[in-house]
């Protein structure tokens, strides 16, 4: 297939992607993702709520710091900004519909090219919002969440909400206002803040306390505006430890939860967690999910993976069944995502240059999550996974252990218990058994 195709025939050779089951050898079919299959009491599509990332799939060019673009797709060939934006949106909605994705997500500057004129940018975005509204009505696609890109423009080199220059913060606020307006107009279910440059490169020129206070005030101001204008969904914060900024204030799930608690934002905000961001923070994805779930703030996820040889955000499509099975165990036990979904914040590789590669990448990602969901449910329903963990903490469910949990024991009483009962028994954590158990159900 050519890398540059006529827009009218762009996806003409690609059929609507269907579920064909494990016996299928068709690379353009699902082998695991059967959207109507009931798992743990709900159809797959309700557990997974897949979304396409507008930016990577339709703005990604394959360029990197060492080379020019390699993804020369036809929606980038129109002459003016609105023409390019409409061609891109035509392609995006056709693609998402053929895949059967129920949702999409966007940054403002993904939808249409911005200039340095605030009013002109607002007019451009409003034009495309009307076009997207028509597309949603025609296809049934919905907006999972919208957001504003407050990190690419050079004015944001020192951040947006945390910038030392108030003028820059005001420009960020103008973008967020327009993006919130667009999200509301399109029936968006959530709104995301990703502070790509909300942090610092060196403390030598940084007042960290003031920057975080300004960040919190910015979030309150944006939240209050959205609520006044009828937005009833959740706001998500997306943690990331570094890159592009050396130290970002939304470092990981625990850091963000502490920030939200300190600045009285817990009632309106949840977390949007990304696999590759978790690993950059030195955690597993499962760890970040569990931290959020334990706090009741597991809102949504960005699905991708990193490369174990590279220490940066490579945004590759997910393919690790073991990792995702462990992730789905957390999500299932938490009762699912709170308002969000699974957004494929991933990009095809620089040398994957055909439009078919976009389909193969998403089919693989959707199938691996569906397989992980089925596997995790089987583990929870058919194995002794839950019982092993419950038994491991059984000493806190009765007697002195329960009294401690209920706040009924003093430090002196704890000391006396230790002296009376002698050395504790060594009890195995059975890690290898549990690892083998997951492999067995895979």
Supply the key terms:
single chain; 442 residues; globular; disordered N terminus; magnesium; magnesium ion binding; cytoplasm; Xylose_isomerase; EC 5.3.1.5
Plain-language structure description:
The chain has 442 residues and is α/β, with parallel strands linked by helices. The chain folds into two domains: 7-382, TIM Barrel, CATH 3.20.20; 393-441, no CATH class. The chain contains 16 helices and 14 strands. The strands form four sheets. It has an eight-stranded parallel beta barrel with strand order 5-6-7-8-10-12-13-14, surrounded by four helices. It has a two-stranded parallel ribbon with strand order 1-2. Strand 13, helix 11 (321-333) and strand 14 (342-344) form a beta-alpha-beta unit.
Q: What is the H/E string?
A: EEEEHEHHEHHEHEEHEEHEHHEHEHHHHH
Main beta-sheet strand count, sense and barrel state: 8 strands, parallel, barrel
Indicate the CATH architecture of the largest domain.
Alpha-Beta Barrel
State the distance separating the first and last CA atoms: 35 Å
**Poorly predicted runs of 5 or more residues:** 1-7
Number of helices: 16
SS-based structural class?
A: alpha/beta
Number of E-type strands: 14
The rough form would be described as globular
Spatial strand order of the main sheet:
5-6-7-8-10-12-13-14
Which fold name fills CATH's third level, the topology of the largest domain? TIM Barrel
User: CATH homologous superfamily name of the largest domain?
Assistant: Divalent-metal-dependent TIM barrel enzymes
**Integer count of domains:** 2
Keywords: Carbohydrate metabolism, Cytoplasm, Isomerase, Magnesium, Metal-binding, Xylose metabolism
Enzyme class: isomerase
Subcellular location: Cytoplasm
GO molecular function, one term: xylose isomerase activity
């Amino acid at each position: 297939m050519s890398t540059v195709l006529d827009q009218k025939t762009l996806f003409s050779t690609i059929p609507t992607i269907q579920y064909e089951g494990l016996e299928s050898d068709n690379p353009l079919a699902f082998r695991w993702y059967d959207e109507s299959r009931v798992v743990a009491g709900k159809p797959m599509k309700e557990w997974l709520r897949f979304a396409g990332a507008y930016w990577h799939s339709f703005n990604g060019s394959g360029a990197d710091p060492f080379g020019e673009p390699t993804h020369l797709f036809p929606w980038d060939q129109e002459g003016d900004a609105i023409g390019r934006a409409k061609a891109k949106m035509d392609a995006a909605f056709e693609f998402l519909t053929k895949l059967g994705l129920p949702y999409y997500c966007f940054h403002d500057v993904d939808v249409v090219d911005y200039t340095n004129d605030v009013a002109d940018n607002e007019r451009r975005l409003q034009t495309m919002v009307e076009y997207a509204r028509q597309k949603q009505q025609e296809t049934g696609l919905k907006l999972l969440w919208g957001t504003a890109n407050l990190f690419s423009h050079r004015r944001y080199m020192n951040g947006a909400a945390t910038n030392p220059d108030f003028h820059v913060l005001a420009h960020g606020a103008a973008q967020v206002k327009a993006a919130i307006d667009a999200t509301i107009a399109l029936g968006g279910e959530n709104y995301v803040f990703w502070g790509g440059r909300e942090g610092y490169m060196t403390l030598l020129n940084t007042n960290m306390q003031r920057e975080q206070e300004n960040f919190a005030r910015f979030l309150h101001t944006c939240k209050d505006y959205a609520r006044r204008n009828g937005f009833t969904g959740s706001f998500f914060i997306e943690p990331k430890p570094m890159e592009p900024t050396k130290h970002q204030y939304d470092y990981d799930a625990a850091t963000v939860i502490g920030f939200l608690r300190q600045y009285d934002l817990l009632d309106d905000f949840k977390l949007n967690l990304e696999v590759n961001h978790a690993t950059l923070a030195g955690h597993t994805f499962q760890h970040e999910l569990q931290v959020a779930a334990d706090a009741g703030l597991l809102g949504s996820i960005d699905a991708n993976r990193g490369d174990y040889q590279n220490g940066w955000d490579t945004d590759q499509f997910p393919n690790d069944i073991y990792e995702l099975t462990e992730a789905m165990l957390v999500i299932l036990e938490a009762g699912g995502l709170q308002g969000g979904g699974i957004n494929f914040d991933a990009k095809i590789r620089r040398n994957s240059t055909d439009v078919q590669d976009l389909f193969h990448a998403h089919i693989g990602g959707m199938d691996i999550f569906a397989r992980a969901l089925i596997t995790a449910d089987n583990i929870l329903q058919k194995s002794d996974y839950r019982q092993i963990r419950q038994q491991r903490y059984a000493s806190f469910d009765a007697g002195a252990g329960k009294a401690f949990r209920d706040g009924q024991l003093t430090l002196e009483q704890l000391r006396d218990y230790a002296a009376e009962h002698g050395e504790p028994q060594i009890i195995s954590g059975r890690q290898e058994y549990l690892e083998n158990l997951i492999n067995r159900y895979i």
